Amino acid sequence: MKKILAFSLIFTFALASCSSNPANTNENAGLKDKTPAATVAKNHLSFKINGIEWQADSEIFGAFHPKGYNKAILISGSKGGNDKNEQTFSIILYNTSGPGVFDITNGNKDNNVIQLANMSPANFMYGSMMGFNMKINVTTASENPTHIEATFEGALTGNAGDELKITDGKFQYHD
């Protein structure tokens, strides 16, 4: 279990760091093809935790069927400083053909991952191997350029046995 938890944390941090390339930042969105930034929607990840707003302020990233994954959709983002207290959130849906509704519970056959890390030193992991029940509605998923939009809600169990209720989840990512 410790190895799986460690792998999940390492994967989340590695995934989040993939979007730290300045060419992929929200401020530079739309500049690749000299398209005015106003015509490209801002990347966004937010949800409520027990009724309190949580919004990613960095490392917002999405991918559709990236190489090395089994038909995956990746959703991730971070909140807070770029240090040991940074909160990271990720959803990884495996074996997906594209947009759809994914109702996922513990023991899911595709080994999907949903996790929130670093809420506090005592509560360092929610979801993942601790447990989760989540309904994700992916309305848009395409590549070249990557465009993913999704909403989600559900619950994440923490390492201390408590549960977070997630509501009003929204994700939007444009390459």
Q: Can you tell me about this structure?
A:
This protein has 175 residues and is mainly β. The protein has one domain. It contains 1 helix and 11 strands, in the order αβββββββββββ. The strands form 2 sheets. A 6-stranded antiparallel sheet has the order 2-1-11-10-9-6, with no helix packed on it.
| Rg, Å, rounded | 15 Å
Given the helix and strand composition, which structural class is it? mainly beta
Q: Provide a count of the helices.
A: 1
Biggest sheet architecture: 6 strands, antiparallel
**Strand elements, count:** 11
The fraction of residues in strands falls at 35-45%
Tell me the strand order in the biggest sheet.
Answer: 2-1-11-10-9-6
Characterize the overall form. Answer: globular
Mean pLDDT over all positions = 80
Please give the alpha-carbon distance between the first and last residues.
35 Å
The poorly predicted ranges are 1-40
How many discrete structural domains? 1
The helix-strand sequence is HEEEEEEEEEEE
Helix content: under 10%
